[in-house]
């Protein structure tokens, strides 16, 4: 039996990953017809059907599933072998799509330790998704795992209530200040941060007043900036305002602290799972979140 070409094996592997000839063609920058011919040639060489095709879908046959998993392991071994060449004049690129507030207030201030531990990795942090670009990993704000990605929760938000020093006295009568509550707009509504924090604070406020009033902003960074400027009162993730708490530009006006249902997730693209550079990134992110935050 003649040995199949690497191109035909790669073509089948990408089709199996996406279950689509069109997506595989886009990924490999060839035509759908070329992909179809390569897979057919592979089936002829192996003497067995690998795909079940109809007008609406593609499925792997039992032998196709077996070959796909074997190729998955093999291609990861090849990619890791290439990455293992750690010469001083070679940098491995690592592209991360990252939630802006997390990047600005938590990730970037600690990047020096990442560079010291991983000098061969050239890290690029993106704040906005580019169409058709496959990122190695994404750090996003959310409530659950991302479908088809390898997801793990890095940290959940831990909320405290803060204000600028000049508003500290007014915070004692918080029920009169609902029009000055700072809110984060999210997916057509508001994050229910204030409601969750008030549940255990023993402060009596009609929740209707919270939903119908206040100042709406679109990022946590904007809320923090507004709070520092004395625009109002905010409930924010303590980890994101360590600097402000230390220098006194924001003050915690109530001892109650509550964990959010939301947090920051690390999502690794299915084509990148198992790569050494992402293993290094994951390990470092876990370390900085386990360690006590530096103030």
From TrEMBL:
Keyword NAD assigned to the entry: answer is no
Q: Which GO terms describe its molecular function?
A: DNA-binding transcription factor activity; sequence-specific DNA binding
**Looking at the record's lineage, which domain of life comes first?**
Bacteria
Give yes or no: UniProt keyword Metal-binding: no
Checking InterPro entries in the record gives: LysR-type_TF_proteobact-type, LysR_HTH_N, LysR_subst-bd, WH-like_DNA-bd_sf, WH_DNA-bd_sf
Q: Where is the HTH lysR-type domain?
A: 4-61
Q: Name one GO biological process term.
A: DNA-templated transcription
User: Its family?
Assistant: Belongs to the LysR transcriptional regulatory family.
Cross-referenced Pfam families: HTH_1, LysR_substrate
- What protein does this entry describe? HTH lysR-type domain-containing protein
